[in-house]
Each structure stands twice: as C-alpha cells, then as structure tokens.
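Why predict the complex rather than its parts? Because the way molecules touch one another can change local conformation, and only a joint prediction can capture that. The input here totals 1089 residues.
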Amino acid sequence: MELTRRGYAVLGIVALAELLALTYGARALNAIAAPAVVALLASVVQLRRTDVPTAERDYVPAAFPGDAREVTVEVDGSGVARIAETVPDGLAADDATVEASLPTTFTYTLACDERGRHALGPLEVRLRDLLGLVEETYEVGSTTGVLVYPPVYQVAGRDVILRHALERADVDRREFDTLREYVPGDPLRDVHWKSTAKAQDDIYVAEFADSRVEDDQIVVAATADAGTVDEMAAAAASVVVMALDAGLSVELRLPEQTVPMGRGEDHRQRLLAALATTDTDFTSPFKSYALPDGATDDADVVVRGDGDCVTVAFGDDDRAFEDITVSRENPLAQRGAES
Amino acid sequence: MSTRTRSGDLSLDLGGVDPVRTVALAGVALLVTAYSSVFYHFIDVTGQPILFVLAATLSLAAATWLSSSIRLRWAAVVAVGLLAAGLGIYVISLPRQPPLVPLVTDAIALMTGRSLLQVTNVDLWVLGVAPGPLFLTWYLALRRRYVASVLAGGGTLAFLVLTTDASTVTTLLGVVGAIVAVAVGDMDRRGDSLKAAEPLAVLLAVLIVLSAIAPVVPAGPSRTADTWSRFQTGGPGVGGGTVEANLLKADTQLGIAGNLSLSPDVRFRVESDAESYWQVGTYDRYTGEGWVRTGSTSSYSGNLDEPPGRSETVSQTYTAVDEMDVVPAAWKPVSVGDDVAGDVQVNDLDGLELDGSIEEGERFSVTSRVPVASGEELRGAGTDYPSSIEERYTRLPSSTSDRVVERTARITARANTSYDTARVVERWLQNNKGYSLDVQRPRQNVADEFLFEMDAGYCTYFASTMVVMLRTQDIPARLAVGYTPGERVAEDEWVVRGYNAHAWVEAYFPDIGWVRFDPTPAGPRQAAEQQELTEARENNRTDVDVDDTGDGEWTSTPTATPAPLTPRAEQPAREAPPGEITIPDRITRPGGTPAPNLNLSSPSITAAPTNESAGGGDDESTGPFGGRPPTREETALGAIVLLGLVVGLRRSGVTSRVYRAIWLRYQPTSDPQTDAERAFDRLEYVLAERHRPRRPEETPRQYLAAIGADERARQVATVRERAMYAGRVTREEADEAVSLVDDIVGWRGV
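Output of the joint prediction:
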C-alpha cells in the first residue's frame, strides 16, 4: 500500500499545518489537519478491507499487422480502481487505461503492429480508496496470447508458380471459376474482355478451376539471415497463401519447424501461425537460424532472405520478392484472417 | 475507450439534472460559502455588504457564463487579472503609497496570524481580492476540474485560516465541502452512480465528529491573539483565568470575555505631575464580538504630534515592580525617555507599543501632552471632524441592530452637541447597568446584547457599548485600555495593581483631540478591588504591597485642594453641565464628591478586559455549544453528521434488522383475512430462524410436520389456509392466530 500523489499532498498539508501551528499558533488549523489525518486513516482502513480484484479478458482473435482488435476486460471486485493493461512491444493501445468503480467492464482498441505471438497482460489494477489517497497495486488476470501474422501481399505469377511447381504446360481453361482483377504476369489470353469492357478502368481476368491441380502439392522452404526474417516471413506467407488459393496443398519448412502437407482454412492458419512466430525468440548463440541440411533440395519454392533482400526461387527461376509483389494489399483482408 | 455508461443514474436523473454532478458542485459551493462568509464578515464589520454581495454574484455569474466558452488558460488569466486589479485598486486606495517591501512583510505578517481585520481598508481589500478566487473556483468546478477548483478555493480558505479569521467551524465546513467535491467529482468523472457516495457520507460523519474532539495540531505559541475568534473554544482554565495580564497581551485584538477575576498584584509605580489614566492602547475597529486595532506600526523616531488643541505637559516616570511588556502613558504621549526609546513602536493610533519587555525594577519616562478643554469648549467644538477620523472611528458592523440606533437616539434626544450626547450616554450606562465580573459572554454583538439582554457587565462591556452608541450618532469614538491611576501613595506617586486594568472610551472633538469618558460605574468595582486586596493581605501575600502602600490613602491637605494638574484638565466634563439637558443623577458616581477612603480622584473602576486566548477564560467551554443555540454552520455540520449516521446504519443493516424485529413483534390489526396471513408470515419467519426455511416445494403442512412444530403452529396454519383458500375467517379466529404467534415469537431475539 502506498500513498498516491494526492495522498502525499494531504500528508504535506498535515505537516504544513503542524509546522505553522507550532511556529505561529494553532488558529483554526486543527479543522484542516484533523480531517486530513482522519481521511488518511480512513483511506488506509478502507483499502485494507477491500478484496483483491479479479479480472478476465476476452479471447483476442489473430490479426494481421495493421489490424485493430477490440479487447474487452471484466474486472471484478469492489472499490475504485485505476486499471491499466500491460501492452507488449509490437502491440499498441492508446486508451488501455481506465478509472472506474469495480466491478466494471471496459473495452479498448488494440492495434496490432508487429508479427509475432504477443502476451497481453496481466492487468495492473491500482485499487484506491474513495478519496484516492492511498493505493494498492495488484497484477490480476492471466496473460492472453495475441497472434499477429506476417503481412500477406498479392504476388504475381500464379501460373508461373503452378507451371514451375507442377511442371505443367497449361491449365485447363474450360472450367470457368471466378473473375478477379488483373495482376501483371497474368497471361493475356486469360483476360476476360467482356467484364473489362464493362468496367471503366480495371482489367479482369478469368480464373479457371483445374481439377487436376487439386491433387498436387508444393513444398515451400523458407529461411533468412538476421534482419530479413520479417520480410522472409511476409514473402513466405504471401506465397503459401497464393498457393493455397490456387488449390494446392502446401508444406512449409522453417528452421524451427515443419508444417506438414495440408490444405484448407485451418491449414492456412497453421502456416501463418508458424510464420508469425518464426525466429521471434531466437536468442541462443548455439543455434543458427538455418534450415536442416537438404531441406531445400526437394522444395518447390525456396524463400531466402540474405540480409538485404528476400528472393523467391521457383525451381531455377530466382526472383526478388519485391519484383513479384503486385500489391501490398492483403488478399485475405476481405475474408478476414480467421475466416 | 468505452466504460460503462451511467445506467444506474438514469432512474435518478431528475429533469436532466445529474445528481452526482449536483452533489459535487454542492461540495464546491460549500467551500465557496465557507470562505465567502469570512469575507462577508469583514465587509459586515466595516461597511456596506451590498457591494460585496454584488461583486461576488457577478464573479459567480461570470464564471458560470464563461465556463462553457473560454478555455482554462484564459480563465486563469482572468482570475489572476481580477486579483491583480483588485489588489492594485486596494494599494492605490491606501492613504500613503507604501513601497513594495512593507506590502510583502505585511503579507507575511498576515500569514503568520495577523487578522485581516487589522488591515486598514479591509472592505476594499476584500472587494479587490474576493472576485478572483470566487471566479476561478466556480469556473473550474463547472469545467469538472474539481481538484483544481478545490485547490483554488481551499487555498483561499487556508489563507483566511492563517490570518486567524476563519473559525474552526467555518474551516471544517469548507474542508468537508472540499472533500465532497473531490470525492464526488471523481465519481462524476468515472460515471458512478450516487450510491457509490454512501461510504463518503459515513466518512464525513466520522471525520466531523473526530475533528471536533481530537486536537491534531499543537496549540503552538500564543502569539498576538490567535484564538481570538469567537468560535475558538477550549484552552486552559475555565472561566475567570488570569486577569489584567490578558489586557496587556491583548495586542491588536481584544476579545470580549466571560466572567473574570481580579488580581491584586502590584504592577508598577508611577511618578507623575498629574493623576491620569495610564493608557496602554486603543482600538478603532469594532467587529461585533471584539475590538481590533488596524494599521501598522513604525519605530519610534523622536517626538510625536501634540493634540490639536490646548494641552499641558505631564511627565511620568514609571518603575516596573513586575515585568512589563507595555508602555503606559497618559494620553497623549509625545515622547519617551531614551531608556526605552529604542524598543518602542508607534502604531497608527499614536499609541505606544513595546518590543520585548521591561525588567522588574527598571525605570522609564514618558512625556505626555494632556488636552485641556472646558465643557464649554467641548460643547462648541462642533462636528467638523477630519475626514480620516470620521471614516475610521464612526464605522459599525452593518449587522448592528436598529434597536441600538433607536435606543441611543431616544436616550440622547435632548442632547444638542456631541459632548452632551457623550455625557448622556456615559451617565445613562452608569445608572442603568450594574457592575459584575461574573457574566455570560454574549455570542455576538456585544453592544446589542449588553444594552438589551444583560443587566450587568464590567468595563469592557460598558466601554464597548458606549463606543457603539456614540458611533450610531456619528460621533467618532474608540475603545481605550490601560490602567486607572491606582493607589496614591504620595502627592505625585501612584502604585498600580493588576486590578487597575480598565477599558474606557475616547471621543474625538475637532481642534481638541481625544477626550476620555468612562461609562463604568465606579463604586461596586472599587469595592470588588478592595475585597481582593484585603483577601490577599489576609493570606499574607507579599506581592500585593510595596513599602508605602496599605497605610491609608495619601490625601492632600485641605489647603491644596485641587492640585494644579489634575485629570480635570483632561476630564472637564466632570463639572455638571448646565441644566438645559437632562442628565441622570450621579448618585452612583462617587467620583464627583470626595470621600476619604476611596480613590476618589480616580472616578472609574477597572476590570480586566481579556483576550480569550491568553486567559483561556472562555465560558463557551462548558458544553458542546456552551449553552447557546448552535450557529447555522454548526447546524450544517450536524446535518451532515446525521446523514452519515443514517447512511451508516442503513449500510450496516441495523435499520433493516430493527425493522424486522419490530415487524415480528407488533402486528397492527386489519381485516381478519390479512391478519391471519400476516400471522402466518411471522410464524414462518420465526420458524425459519429457529429451524430452517420452508422449501418452495413444501406445503405449509408438510413443512410444519417436517420440523416438528407444535400444536399452536398447526392451528395458525389452519387459520391461514381457511383465510387464503376458503376466504372465510372470523375475527376471533384471526385474533387467536395472532395471539398464538405472539406467544411463539415471545421476546426472544431473532
């Protein structure tokens, strides 16, 4: 239990009153000092009798960098509290502090800035007395993990990847699937001229469902030197998301772990989670952040950060990731990271 | 971030008024009221409160109006500007433009316990200073900056506490307001409902009670008159107390005390050319409860002004028999001997004050010029008073009642001159009021109380009342304190004892100066003094006599009848005025006719006006309110305590338990059906306490069987069943059920 700033001020008033009374007579100073002393004592007693508060925080869904998440916290107990959330680096919240009478529920907006698995909390609850003269600080509520995926960009060369990875000459163009916006690298014959003509500025290309692709698989291996791990994760995430979208099964090899072959929403989340946490807590000097020997040999796509830039190799076609990035817009943004 | 909205308040929201904010603002208002009441008191003592009320209202209105439109920074500029402008106007209004340093030292003197009432133009000071804090406090409160608001208001109140002008009760009220404002202000900010303030009400009750009984700060040195305020209670000694020492220590503030006793100890000897009252000090400002000397002091530097009219030199040499810390002098002193000149200060009223003290056995001399004027001259003096005198010495608290004015006007209806008026008032008081040292001190407005409610008093009462009466007739008058001449031991030597301490009146006459009047009846007082002295001698006290006292009064030989210089020069009014005005007879005044065994030439008696702080002889310490009705402020505090008590009881569940106990034992009679049902409810309650509550699925019969209830209980259940389901129950059956339940409940506590 300690005095708040206000408490120190009241204590100072008492001391000053005593001093002035000693030096120049009591006057009516007792009417100031006595209530101040009583208030301080009452505050201590009140705080002593207050129970330890408890808190519960809602589950926070995983997010991409730049996303905002509403976090709701329920704090149970009694008395007045100043509640502050412990927000780790990589996340940010401007308004994660509230002063309220308990029990209370409050909500704040969490800005997700950096890739990684962040631990949100515990809550710092400064329990105060009614007058705010003394406070007791409690750490309540467990931490909540917040997973922030690497950014996912739209990359070109879906066909290229498919060709390279699957050694396929052509896509069966008969089965029309969806329309999407043109990205550089799309073959001109895929342009859907009808829709393009209707739209003023955009060019649309047709996507074709290819039943043969569904059985096919690619292996993506990713590694990086220090300093480009984040970019590597973004590149690998973009590539695997694109590959999954193309209907491929994807296996991802990272220095710490290998995510086995799979497909579908859950698999995408597994892949993104693996990429979210890769190298984030790589601190041991005895381990190097490198793929096991031979991991790249049979990989279809190798993403490699060399300290300066990140390259994506499709077989022997080795390109800088920047060059194949079509748009920094997240292709999953519409669908939501979790959907 | 969104916190919970104030849903709890919606039900309490009366016509858009937020109850939490209202309470917080009420706290601020209480604080504002506390310090405004002190300001108001200053104005009330010195002048017209209308202007102050107007200024305060304007400040608050401006704060209300501007709170929504101007920013905090500009509001602070406005408040500081108001304060600076007010102080500027005040400084400009001062008769002499003081340099900066004395202004600063004056401010420090105020902070260390000098009452603001001593400030010369306190009304202007208040008018100048009050709007700034008022504006800022209220503005900040309306802006929801409650803590800052309390800082502004509390600072003002604290300043008034330091100047001794805020009483304990006023201060406590302000502090309570401040606490409410801060705590409920926090709640307002958090969006709590008013229910959260319940513990606060309990805290306030505890806090007020404890603050009233527990001294937390030390009494500290008894300087000036720091506990002079009428609200101060306590202190050592009850009633009586030391006597004339209090007069000597009265310094710049003189309170009206309760009952007192007299001290026969010898204080000093004086060799003088003429008999006189040995004046120690004068007071110009009447506050209703006491006297204040305004203005500042300066060191003595050579001769002082002589009185404006004819005057005679009276040289006095004083020998301290006991340690002295005053410089007595016949009015009006013009110079002091070199032996004390360095320690003497001269105050604004031309009185002498002493820094330090004069040791036992030390001698010092004072030269005075005593005004000489005949009754004829005084009558002809007219009313052409210097404006500075008129302004300073005719002021009365605006709360002075009309009946004082009317009574004085009636008494003096036939007096045509100021002098006659003064003589009539003096004589009227002597003849109509008794002398007593054992009086209950009036709570306020001493003159009014003495004039209308009291039969007797001592010199302070007489003198204060006379000054007030003269001032109602626009005659400049003031209160003087000091010693009566004392025991004459030789032709030119007097021995002065403690009980010679006295208060009297001085009235101003143009071109003559201050002339002494003494409205206290002398006879009974001298008898009281003599009795003290006799008792002390019987007890073989050695400090009541010096070598040459006690052997009978020195009397002049018949041939030397009027000594060349007697107080008659100063008191020409002793001659009976011509018969054109009616003056009550002088039977009770032995001063007019010589009588060998009394101190005849000293026509007045002395009692000790005391300063409550020094004597601690405060009759208010005889109970919570000293037997007087509580003031409005005390009532307000009491109401808060009561509220806290009620809330506390409710919170602790005492009220509901008491209600339950009563409900269980007393059943009012209604119609038979209701009675039967209630009887069963009571039965069920008491059985639940003694055994177990009835489960929801149990019928009453099953329940009674399960707990093994006796026949009486079953009968009550039967009656209730019939009442509920058959709707037929007779009066007798119902009464039977009720009395059976009464039996079961008994008086056992539940």
